[in-house]
């Protein structure tokens, strides 16, 4: 229910030297009982995710690294603790599952090789690319 994430403002006080200004309306976590499924539209429509992102999300879904637990521990250091209520923390786990399910549907439809972009490969140096061309 936090639809402000789809919008931005343009700071134009200095004329053509303006810049984008992203705002947070202080409801960054929305209502814990409402999952705004439309926020997944870019993922569901493009069906692409970086491998490193997917691996991190999968790790945060594991019981020993649960997102809510990691966030809860991190926020204990905040002077304003508790920053999030327990229902908001648990909503993080539920929403993470929705994301992983959306990725799963994409993989079922298009295949993992199409959906998961391999960003873990070492970039090749220009010299190595030239050698590869010579070998073919």
UniProtKB/TrEMBL annotation:
Location, primary (coarse class): Golgi
One Gene Ontology MF term: protein serine/threonine kinase activator activity
Location relative to the cell: Golgi apparatus
Cofactor(s) for this UniProt protein: Mn(2+)
Superkingdom, taxonomy of origin: Eukaryota
Residue ranges occupied by any FAM20 C-terminal domain in the UniProt entry: 1-115
Keyword Transferase: yes
Sorted UniProt keywords: ATP-binding, Disulfide bond, Glycoprotein, Golgi apparatus, Kinase, Manganese, Metal-binding, Nucleotide-binding, Transferase
Residues at which ATP binds: 9, 24
Pfam families assigned to the protein according to its UniProt record, in alphabetical order: Fam20C
InterPro entries assigned to the protein according to its UniProt record, in alphabetical order: FAM20, FAM20_C
Binding site for Mn(2+): 24
Similarity comment: family membership: Belongs to the FAM20 family.
Name of protein: FA20A Pseudokinase
Organism: Mohoua ochrocephala
Name of the gene: Fam20a_1
């Amino acid at each position: 229910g936090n639809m402000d994430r789809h919008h931005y403002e343009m700071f134009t006080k200095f004329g053509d030297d303006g810049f984008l200004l992203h705002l947070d309306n202080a409801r960054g976590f929305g209502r814990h009982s409402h999952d705004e499924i439309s926020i997944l539209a870019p993922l569901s429509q493009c069906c692409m995710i970086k491998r490193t992102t997917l691996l991190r999300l999968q790790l945060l879904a594991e019981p020993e690294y649960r997102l809510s637990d990691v966030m809860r521990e991190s926020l204990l250091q905040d002077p304003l603790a508790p920053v999030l209520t327990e229902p908001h923390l648990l909503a993080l786990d539920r929403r993470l599952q929705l994301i992983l399910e959306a990725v799963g549907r994409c993989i079922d439809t298009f295949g993992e090789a199409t959906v998961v972009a391999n960003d873990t490969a070492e970039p090749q140096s220009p010299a190595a690319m030239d050698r590869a061309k010579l070998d073919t």
